Amino acid sequence: MAEQVRGVAHILTDFVSPLPTGSRQHLIDSLATLVYRYGRPELAARLHTVTAPTPEHETEDGQMPRISPNGTR
Fold first, then answer.
1. How confident is the model over 23-34, as pLDDT tens digits?
2. What spatial distance separates the first Cα and last Cα of the chain, rounded to whole Å?
3. Structural domain harbouring 72
């Protein structure tokens, strides 16, 4: 199982690395939403904690929009 997890992590890293920052952030937010829906809100919170807001996705008030667990902003 650990080898499968490492394999998936490598694939995700290869996929996400070349994405533009905004696309990468959206993907991470979407993953956090899925993780939350699968009953792991603590992991979803960790995903949001390890990702920093990017200037291109900040709102006018300087805040980073987040996708709520129900999929809305």
1. 988 998 999 999
2. 35
3. 21-73
